[in-house]
Description:
Blueprint: H1 3-19, H2 27-58, H3 63-80, H4 92-124, H5 129-145, E1 151-152, E2 158-159, H6 162-206
Antiparallel strand pairs: 1-2
Helix pairs in contact: 1-2, 1-6, 4-5, 5-6
Amino acid sequence: MSSELIGLLxxxxxxxxxxxxxxxxxxxxxxxxxxLVGVSAAYAAVVAVQRIILPIFDQDISIQTGLTWVIxxxxxxxxxxxxxxxxxxxxxxxxxxxxxxxxxTALLGALTGTLxxxxxAVTTSTAPRWQNLLIAIFTVAVLVxxxxxxxxxxxxxxxxxxxxxxxxxxGQAVLMITFGVLFAALFNTALxxxxxxxxxxxxxxxx
Length: 207
């Protein structure tokens, strides 16, 4: 049996293992998922070593470049200490910095990449203005849905302001419709991919 035929058989078997999830979670699906995660993690580790760690040793390390790498290496070392219960507290500041920078980046991306383009599109787009305005309103409503500021009432229960609750309900409706459409599109895509893969394997075996 040639190596090409063996590869086709393995690909067909793993494809069927993945799509066996349609009948419920089962050991075959778990085996395929574990293989996918393991291979992906190994590939990411190899790429990280080749493109990030090894180039450090290939360059001419001077005092300036050495100091540039000192702080990141210290942060990495502190994060590794999170695996040790007695020294985990040393990595708290590094983890807080990582989460803070990530949250700030995500917030800036949401404002400059989603909200502001939707608002400016109201006046620059060739589509009907009411349509662009509606899209901008829905975008704001979805963003407000993930805003959890509020205050405690007389009974001690946390509540949002009235206006925020109304806008959040609109955002939740938009999210439900969006997720429903995405799920339907994902299911349709999965069926198309399945038929395409089965057709590919059938043609290869026949040839």
